[in-house]
What does this fold into?
Amino acid sequence: MMTPLKPWQKVVAYSALALVGLWTLWGLFAIWVMLTDPRG
Amino acid sequence: MKLSREARDVLETSMLQNRVGAKDRDEIETLVAILPDDRVLLYKNVVSNPLGDLYRYSIHIRIQHMLTFVTFLMLAFTGLPIHFFESFWAEPFNQVLGGVSVTRIIHRTIAVIMIVSMIYHVLTITLGSWWRMRAGTFDIRRTIIPLWKDVRDFREDLQYFAGKRKTRPEMDKFNYKQKIHYFAAAFGNTVMVVSGSSFLFPELWAMILPTSVASHWQELMRLSHPHEALLALLVIAFWHWYNVHLAPGRFPMQWTFLTGKITREHQIEEHFLEYLRNLVEQPAERKALQDMLESRELLAETGRKGGKS
It folds into this structure.
């Protein structure tokens, strides 16, 4: 049973999650770039 | 709770290493005896602070993780427009940073910081192990070194997730999954450093390697560097981040990398053997557990099953 996060903890945790989400988009872009690279 | 042979051995070793006196030993044994046999009842009922309850990582390990993750993100972010510098999308990226030659300098500077972090890490674990060996508190089961038990844990955990087993295996401080991840990262970093250095110092590598190998070396490294980077990126984005952000019990974020502490719930579920050591090393944890068992009516001797929800 986890105690609830305080407001500032929510800001930190969800900001980190947003950063991770954004960075995953960059990762997906990188995968697309590399898989479609004509040089192989 | 009747401890398994492995758990009993971990507990005995820990009590021996911590020179536990008769009174404390009695307290620990009594507490273990009244634990419910069903470990799920324990971790579903303990109260946990999401920022962590039990010490896990030193400040050195946290600094190294911070350095590695910041440099990793920046290296992957700058590496892609360097590798594809002629592409239409790469040009604006490089222009923002001052041109591809500047992006290269940034990339190499960050790489040096990552290498420093790797050396710092190797020094930390080597000196830490040496110090524990001297103090008589070293236990290989508490390290990241893979053991046969990890193979068994892996099999039993798969059985649990396939619904063929009631509980997860009793895993140690580092479980099979973390060990695979750690050595994959160590291997990946080595590949990146070796291949990256062959771009920076081709003459040096040509001098070291036999002529027959040196001629193919650069080509091999040019293939390895971007593809290992892509592999690392996949592992971080779809495995590590799932485990520390999205997995049940971790959402929205596991705080261990900042606080150095793990939650009680997580420790009991995934690192039960380490939790037994926590009971030996931290009298306050014994008290907290005892209070929880009493308040939730989970004492094994009462014969009652099922805690309050």
